[in-house]
Structure of uroporphyrinogen-III C-methyltransferase:
Amino acid sequence: MSKVFLVGAGPGDPGLLTLRAKQVIETCDVMIYDYLANKDFLKWCKPDCEILYVGKKGGDHTLPQDKINELIIEKAREGKDICRLKGGDPYVFGRGGEEAEELVEAGIDFEVVPGITAGVAAPAYAGIPVTHRDHTTSVCFITGHEDPTKEKSGHNWAVYGQSNSTLVFYMGVKNLPMIAKNLMDNGRAPETPVALVRWGTRCTQQSMVSTLENVAADAAERGFKAPSIIVVGGVCSLHDKLNWFEKKPLLGKGVVVTRAREQASGLVDILGAKGACVYEFPTISVEHIDDYADVETAILGLAGYDWLVFTSVNGVKFFWEQMETVGLDTRILGGIQVAAIGPATADALREKGVNPDFIPEKYVAEHVVDGLLKKGIQGSRVLIPRARVAREILPEKLSEAGCDVQVLPVYETRMAGSDVDAVREAMKAGKVQYVTFTSSSTVQNFFELMPPEEFKTYEGVKIASIGPITSKTVHEYGFTVAVRPEEYTIPGLVEELLKD
Ligand code: SAH
């Protein structure tokens, strides 16, 4: 029997997801998630989990509610377990109740996993306890955006206005002028403190405190938008005193972590604890290809080539490995010209006893071709041992120049972790301030997936490097290191970032 789990994803901070929610995410067959559910949690889904986005952002509905209900029921009828993931708590302004009723009518089994609602968590992260004996005896959760199809408002402004209750409005930013006016018209003092908390509990959290009479103008001036929680009442006066989260030294700073996921967690955790918005850069794992017959043929026929062009350290490593497998060594390269496309590749060749005949001044395919042409490569027979999938520009340009080019895959790369495009988008949007490197290989991986010529265009992104050897590799790609710890450790690196 399939089951539908209506799950609260909490307000955004991953640490505020419940253990039960994580368990459901890890085991569901279908994941149907909303705009306000933190997308990071999707990484815990099973590899074959079907992931569907039905988010609503403001008035812009990806799928209308009745279609969402139909989708959930349709998937459940396929006999699958479904995680219906919603921001905060599913039953607090999340329409979880409506979905549950539909499920009952359709005879489908369901469970609810409550979540931490934004109306409590966002104020708490902005230094506002929603109740406090000095200020209030109750708290009210109110929608700031009533069902527009309703004929008569369900709000009783007289009650909100005359009570001393803390009022917590969801979805209220657009209606803030109306909300403030109604409260004042019904008896709340114009100087009553009001707080807005946007993207509460996330690294992008922002908050502001004003008064009922000024808040609409203040919020407009500061450009406060959804998703924000609005809190009205004396408790907001505690913001300055209790505001612990926004004091974090790296709050809102975008930091890219380039370590392999298995090793990265330490750095990711420390940066996260300091408030940074951490972007995990995918790492690549380098693997053998299935069949080396072509490589063997090429190695045995090396005498038929004029140039060997290596574009990566791994190209060198795997080519030599096969040479040794065939029972040959570096001496077979006598008489063949060898090019290294980057400084690290050149070092790898030197380690094999080969001093490259050509190293370009700039490590961009176009420059490489120009340099090789100056060396007289046109019309030659060129072998390029490299990854199975790589930029085609080098072989193409060399073919155009009349070379007889053979591309020889000697290894393949697999991407692990999140996608480069997410980091790329964040860099484009100016959300990234630092890229951290913790070893030379992280530098190489990074520039393999993000070409140096592209990275150059993202101005304002500084490089933090753990130590001198890593920094040397950064320099070889033509970049400077802005953050250099005295102590070459992860905590040392973070310390130095805090000082920058
Ligand atoms: N079920 C959710 C609320 C959904 S209604 C919950 O329990 O939290 C959507 C509204 O929730 C938004 O318009 C905003 O007012 C509020 N909200 C959700 N997440 C928020 C966050 N991280 N920071 C501030 N407000 C948030």
Observations:
- The domain at 120-247 is CATH 3.30.950.10 (Methyltransferase, Cobalt-precorrin-4 Transmethylase; Domain 2).
- Residues 11-12, 36, 86-89, 92-94, 117-118, 122, 170-171, 197-202, 226-229 surround S-adenosyl-L-homocysteine (CB under 6 Å).
- The CA atoms of residues 151 and 298 lie 79 Å apart.
- The chain has four domains: 4-116, 120-247, 254-283+416-499, 288-414.
